[in-house]
């Protein structure tokens, strides 16, 4: 015999799925720290394409105050960057994707 689905069962399963996804996201995904990432080398193809340097030559324009930096909460000189996934960049560096943080 085939079981008939009910509206109540549908709502229960949907609510359970939403709760499961929310809790799973909170407890299973954690941010990566710069210490876990390899440092971006200036001569790598991606860094060269974006003209990345470890030391900015323009006053006030560096990775430390860029919108794309992902500060991991440490005081490390190397931090994750959204432009270079899996790599950390020097906070004193600069690249052509630089975007100033809003004031």
From TrEMBL:
Gene3D superfamilies: High potential iron-sulphur protein. GO terms for biological process: aerobic electron transport chain. The keyword Iron-sulfur applies. Residues 34-103 form the High potential iron-sulfur proteins family profile domain. PROSITE patterns: HIPIP, TAT. It comes from Photobacterium aquimaris. Coiled coil: none annotated. The keyword Iron applies. Pfam families: HIPIP. Specific class of high-redox-potential 4Fe-4S ferredoxins. Functions in anaerobic electron transport in most purple and in some other photosynthetic bacteria and in at least one genus (Paracoccus) of halophilic, denitrifying bacteria. Keywords: 4Fe-4S, Electron transport, Iron, Iron-sulfur, Metal-binding, Signal, Transport. InterPro entries: High_potential_FeS_prot, HIPIP_sf, TAT_signal, TAT_signal_bac_arc. One of its GO terms (molecular function) is 4 iron, 4 sulfur cluster binding. This is High-potential iron sulfur protein 2.
């Amino acid at each position: 015999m085939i079981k008939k689905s009910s509206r109540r069962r549908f709502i229960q399963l949907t609510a359970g799925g939403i709760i499961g996804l929310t809790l799973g996201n909170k407890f299973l995904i954690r941010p990566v720290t710069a210490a876990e990432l390899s440092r971006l080398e200036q001569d790598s193809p991606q860094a060269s394409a974006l003209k990345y340097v470890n030391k900015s030559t323009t006053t006030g324009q560096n990775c430390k105050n860029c919108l794309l930096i992902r500060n991991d909460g440490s005081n490390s000189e190397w931090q994750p960057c959204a432009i270079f996934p899996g790599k950390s960049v020097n906070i004193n560096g600069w690249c052509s994707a630089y975007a100033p943080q809003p004031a």
